[in-house]
Amino acid sequence: MADNLVRLRNLSKEFPVKGGVFQRQVATVNAVSNVNLDIRRGETLGLVGESGCGKTTLGRMLVRLLEPTSGTIEFDGEDITHVKGAQLKGFRRRMQFIFQDPYGSLDPRTQVGDSIAEGLRLHGVADRDERQDRVTEMLELVGLKGAHAGRYPHEFSGGQRQRIGIARALILKPDLVVADEPVSALDVSVQAQVLNLLRELQEELNLTLLFVAHNLAVVEHISDRVAVMYLGRVVEFTERESLYSNPQHPYTEALLSAIPIPDPDRQKNRQLLTGEIPSPLNPPIGCHFHPRCPIAVDGICNVDVPELAAAEDDGDHMAACHLRTGAHTHLDPRAKK
């Protein structure tokens, strides 16, 4: 059995929507719904999906930046769902977050060396001289110079600022790092540099990484396993090779068909999805994807919510699709694929 560092069970997050003169709750946004995931120690798990599908919300709940509405979060065998105060502070030293915006996440009035060392100071790690030495070491580890510690964020390029964000996340030597779209704001050439840096640091520091992204091509480059989210739910979860060679969920198939091929003479069959992404304020009954799904069966897909289950042709490949997992075939023979 794999050594799981993180276990998420039935994790959900709802946000109230308020309106009117008295700001009463008028609706609920189901940002994340009943997510079950395991993250193995030392692996990179890619979490992918369209904007607004709940990826960032899930990552922030994992490190307790957001409180879950229901469900449990286990970290290294301990339930941390409701821990607070000093106990939570101890766990947060072992869990760090890399933010999407490499400039907005840094204080423009603070030298980058002080920003990187802030975690050490808050957790009472080392004295001032040793903290400075650790900052210099970390800057050099991410490809910058120790002298850069005295500069301010506006004096760096976007790629350099993201390296500073990575250094700040790694200064406490965490076990788990949640990287929220860490390369989406960068040029393509810089993206490759940052991705390669993350892979090198993961091997060197034995990190466990949750890599949140909307770009499946980027996720393929760095991940060991991949989870695909749609409208707050995980709809597919498997090893990287299996997902890219044999996708089981129609949503994943459409996402993969949209990846550009660097060959103008090669034809590619695009699977264009019809309709708009449903609102999380009023998600469709049954499978959330069925209004846009090219293989949906009326009376099945628009009635029951599919559970994440083993695909018929690959027992280790999990998908939330009635048709691809063989569910409800007794109700309608057309469901057999």
Description:
- By secondary structure, this protein is an alpha/beta fold.
- It has 3 domains: 4-94 and 174-230, Rossmann fold; 111-170, no CATH class; 248-337, no CATH class.
- It has 9 helices and 12 strands.
- It has helices spanning 55-62, 85-92, 112-122, 128-141, 158-170, 188-205, 216-222, 240-245, 250-257; strands at residues 4-19, 24-40, 44-48, 70-75, 78-79, 95-98, 176-180, 208-213, 225-230, 233-239, 309-311, 314-319.
- The strands form 2 sheets. Strands 6-7-8-3-9-10-12-11 form an 8-stranded mixed beta sheet, with helices on both faces. Strands 2-1-4-5 form a 4-stranded antiparallel beta sheet.
- A hairpin with a 4-residue loop joins strand 1 and strand 2 (24-40).
- Helix 3 (112-122) packs parallel to helix 5 (158-170) and helix 5 runs parallel beside helix 6.
- The chain starts with a strand and ends in an 18-residue tail after the last strand.
- The model is unreliable at 333-337 (pLDDT under 50).
Describe this protein with a few key phrases.
337 residues, alpha/beta, 3 domains, 4-stranded antiparallel sheet, 28% helix
Query: Count the strands?
Result: 12
Main sheet: strand order: 6-7-8-3-9-10-12-11
Main beta-sheet annotation: 8 strands, mixed
CATH topology (fold) name of the largest domain: Rossmann fold
